[in-house]
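Late entry, evening session. Most of the bench is empty. Finally got around to the prediction I had been postponing all week. Sequence below, unchanged from the version circulated by S.P.
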Amino acid sequence: MNIGILCPKCGLMQMNRPACKSCGAPLTDSAFGSVSSSAPLSPKEVPYAADISGDPSVPLQEGAENAAAARFSFRGKGGELFGLYLINLFLSLITLGIYYFWGKVKVRKYLFGRTEFWEERFVYHGTGKELLVGFFKALVVFFVPLYVLTAAPAFLEAGPVVQAVAMGLTYGIVMVFVPLAMVGARRYRLSRTSWRGIRFSFRGEAWDFIKIFGLGSILSTLTLGLYFPFFDARRYDFMVSQSYFGTQRFSFDGRGKDLFRHFLLAILLTLPTLGLYWFWYWARRQRYYWGRTSIGPARFRSTVTGRALMNLKIANFLIALLTLGLGWPWILARQIRFACKYLTLEGPLSLAEIRQDAKQANATGEALSGFLDADFSLG
């Protein structure tokens, strides 16, 4: 029995209809074929893009059928997100903020459910209850000690020595909890994300990242920021190389020194270009980092350019300014669509060999990352 048609233009799977709901391309059973419920697509039948050598900044050939199958795509719309935000805002107000966590989950489910790769959508499995419990744990573990350290010396009218010690302890707590939050957030989010029914996971130890973060922060300060590309690459390496899709591990073979001279150039051109050259640096960094990220024999590829990134950020700023912030759902949809547009996976990836290997995680680090603005996202 035929249950759906694959659009030849955008690749969206949908019920039988004369035209694609997403792009408007005509659909017919005879022209494009349909998907049968009695013959599901097996992991071995999933296509992949051929390995293309050369300069990673050169885009893939648009007409290549196998390359198109390995592209990411986002089907979400700003208007639909705006509706979700309005409902979440109303319910959060009447529940004194409690519904905020359930609303956050709804938004994530929408974003993940509208993001496709190889014609399969991602799924988010988190719950509002997990985020609420994580929030209260983070409140007790982090903010209570921090409040005591900052408020107690002033309340007790302590001397300068006690105040200095309290300030030092406060700084130490923040320096520990920021990397702890980054690791915890990544562990939780990956554990609640799946693709083709297989969960992602993060298996790095928090203490290892705390050492990387602490040393990198100190060296970046002592070198007036010149160590940042090396610190940045080490952080990225840790987050990627400890990430898994089922039993398949991701890997990263980039080095900070490869971006160092581009980082210096961005610093030198900050004043002459009024800071605009940084868009070109961040685009180069994104191309380099994704180009050095792989999963098995398959390697990611980003073709983003500085001009495209600049146009996106400026347009998003104008949307936020002209709508007084109400245009944020459209901005979010634009950002995800932009990221997917320039990202592909090249090379063979045997999905049949990847098995489920889910790991447990709690939402405490997720809550900490929100408090400390310590999010970490790839690319």
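Two things to note before I forget:
The chain has a mean pLDDT of 80.
The radius of gyration is 23 Å.
Will write this up properly tomorrow.
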